[in-house]
Amino acid sequence: MSYDLSLFGWTDLRAAGLPEGTVPARVARVDRGAAEVVAADGRHHVKYGARVRRASAADPVSLPCVGDWVALGLLPEGRYELDAVLPRTTAFVRGGVSRDSVGGLSGDGQGQVLAANVDVVFVAEPSMHSTDYADLGRIERLVALAWESGGTPVVLVTKSDLFEKGLEELLADVRVAAPGVDVHAVSSLRGDGVSLAGDYLDGSRTAVILGPSGAGKSTLVNALAGEPAMETQQVRAADGRGRHTTVHRELIPLRGGGLIIDTPGIRRIGLYDIGHGVDLVFSDIESLAEECRFGDCGHVSEPGCAVLSALESGELPERRLESWRKLQREAAWMATRTDARARKEQQNAWKIITKEMRRSGRNRP
Question: What is the CA radius of gyration of the chain?
Fold first, then answer.
């Protein structure tokens, strides 16, 4: 079966970066050391070439991921090899952050690319679990990372049929948590909001859908695809938590045009190389901070702090300020970890150079 790669997002601009003697393909799914790709002459299961393996060993962010455009080299035996990952226009990267045994942050400062070359990031948050409402803090975190990726975030409050009473108030709260971001209520089972989500994927645009297990991501993908593209399961009645139906990331072409990447449920996602993303999500706090008496105000107990004044008046919710502080601390911590890793890699590189220089000196006649 042949494919028109322009329907998958291939452009003349991308073609300009294709190494001579290779053919383009887009990664639809990844396995360990191999990937399923879509090329003009069909789908192929390809292993990583030596150059890709070396690059990924030095930096895990360079590993091929779903959505990547790659260059395939033809081997003498007639099969393809994944020879190079082409430059990404966008990349959704999560940091390697976890909780240690004493409840602090730990990790190695390395990132993992969840999806590449996406135009839209759908942040799916269920309107209601069995005991909880939508997690506004999780929405803020994912939207910050979405802005950082280069894609456009869109928040989808899923399973809206379970939360009809007070739904508008919930959507208003979500809009406060994600200023400047489109927010839609979606019920995949009833079809509410599905066409609105599909409108973001005109032509060959690509979206990735992110959220916790039980958010109805795969059900929404099936609704957009118009057919059962992904397996779905019911949320557990005992605790309202979803099962991890999707165990891999996969690029799915939609009948009406566009593509979507479904992902496994996310329990925790760390920040990575964060810059303006947090500032955009908390633009209300950033605007208030400009009115503080001191330029270096920490918004803790300083006199003339506009942020604390807004907190006291009720203009700024306490939950939102605490969420901002948490993400600021984590972003600062990740920056130090990333800098430390960069310094170590630079030191290792100089050791190799020094060793080679000494070896060359010994070999001189």
Answer: 23
